[in-house]
């Protein structure tokens, strides 16, 4: 979709459903992260629009991020703005990209960064004109693929393995945490208010 890289997780999957539904949904989200963050392939994010929360997470899972140079497009982990909390593995992924202090600021405030600020913060690696995002991503891919694969893969794994192992170890506990958190009346109410606001903004 033009102007949106990803709207993040589907909020309708996290509201008004059964605990079994929430558990299956969260397991699938974990699986997505484990596959993408743990992939030994080269992954380049061509960010052609806004990228809140889960969308930002997907971009952060990639090895390199190229974003369209348009201040109307914003990226960030904005969970607190929805009244929810980015789980520890979202937080770890952000820390591994921009460091601890910048992550703390970002997460507590639920900040969405317009493209130029995202570049300053290190959330993205490069800005290019909107119509050059795909070609710039292809060029970056060629550069990354020119590095000997075994050396690049072992290096990637060395950098990411501690975060991945942490989720693998705590996977079931993380699902239980998510289910008990998201099914609280107060959290369901916050999500509903956020969705109503999204619809009113039209
Ligand atoms: C203690 C801790 C323990 C455990 C952890 C607990 C909790 C962690 C849980 C969850 C983590 C979640 C991460 C997420 O990804 S949450 C989702 C965050 N996403 C957003 O905030 C995006 C909101 N959307 C927008 O900002 C905009 O819609 C936009 C920039 C993506 C697009 O803007 P547009 O102006 O182009 O389009 P709209 O008119 O706003 O939207 C069109 C349409 O789509 C609906 N919609 C938008 N985003 C979502 C979404 N993420 N899920 C579901 N639906 C969405 C929007 O309501 C409109 O619907 P209608 O056409 O009105 O029906």
TrEMBL record:
Q: What EC number(s) does the entry state?
A: 5.3.3.8
Catalytic activity as recorded in UniProt? (3Z)-hexenoyl-CoA = (2E)-hexenoyl-CoA; (2E)-tetradecenoyl-CoA = (3Z)-tetradecenoyl-CoA; (3Z)-decenoyl-CoA = (2E)-decenoyl-CoA; (3Z)-octenoyl-CoA = (2E)-octenoyl-CoA
Please name the top-level EC class of this enzyme. Answer: isomerase
Q: Which GO terms describe its molecular function?
A: delta(3)-delta(2)-enoyl-CoA isomerase activity
| Main location group | mitochondrion
Recorded hits in CDD domains, A to Z, give:
crotonase-like
Q: Which PROSITE patterns match?
A: ENOYL_COA_HYDRATASE
> What pathway is this protein a component of?
Lipid metabolism; fatty acid beta-oxidation
**One GO CC annotation:** mitochondrial matrix
Q: Where in the cell is it found?
A: Mitochondrion matrix
For this UniProt record, give its keywords in alphabetical order, as a comma-separated list.
Acetylation, Fatty acid metabolism, Isomerase, Lipid metabolism, Mitochondrion, Signal, Transit peptide
Which GO BP annotation is one of this protein's?
fatty acid beta-oxidation
Q: Which InterPro entries match?
A: ClpP/crotonase-like_dom_sf, Enoyl-CoA_hyd/isom_CS, Enoyl-CoA_hydra/iso
Question: What role does this protein play?
Answer: Key enzyme of fatty acid beta-oxidation. Able to isomerize both 3-cis (3Z) and 3-trans (3E) double bonds into the 2-trans (2E) form in a range of enoyl-CoA species, with a preference for (3Z)-enoyl-CoAs over (3E)-enoyl-CoAs. The catalytic efficiency of this enzyme is not affected by the fatty acyl chain length.
Oligomeric state and interaction partners are given as: Homotrimer.
Q: Which PANTHER family match?
A: ENOYL-COA DELTA ISOMERASE 1, MITOCHONDRIAL, ENOYL-COA HYDRATASE-RELATED
Sequence similarity: Belongs to the enoyl-CoA hydratase/isomerase family.
What this protein is called in its record is Enoyl-CoA delta isomerase 1, mitochondrial
Name its species: Engystomops pustulosus (Tungara frog)
């Amino acid at each position: 979709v033009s102007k949106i890289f990803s709207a993040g997780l589907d909020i309708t999957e996290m509201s008004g459903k059964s605990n079994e539904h929430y558990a299956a949904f969260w397991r699938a989200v974990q699986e997505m992260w484990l596959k993408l963050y743990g992939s030994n392939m080269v992954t380049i994010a061509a960010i052609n629009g806004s990228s809140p929360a889960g969308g930002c997470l997907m971009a952060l899972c990639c090895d390199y991020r190229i974003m369209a140079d348009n201040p109307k497009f914003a990226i960030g982990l904005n969970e607190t703005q929805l009244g929810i909390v980015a789980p520890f593995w979202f937080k770890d992924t952000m820390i591994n990209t921009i460091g601890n202090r910048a992550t703390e600021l970002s997460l507590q405030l639920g900040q969405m960064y317009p493209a130029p600020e995202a570049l300053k913060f290190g959330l993205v690696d490069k800005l290019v004109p909107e119509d050059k995002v795909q070609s710039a991503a292809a060029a970056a891919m060629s550069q990354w693929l020119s590095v000997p694969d075994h050396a690049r893969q072992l290096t990637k794994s060395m950098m990411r393995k501690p975060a991945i192992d942490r989720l693998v170890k705590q996977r079931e506990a993380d699902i239980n945490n998510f289910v008990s958190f998201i099914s609280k009346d107060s959290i369901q109410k916050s999500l509903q208010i956020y969705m109503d606001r999204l619809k009113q903004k039209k």
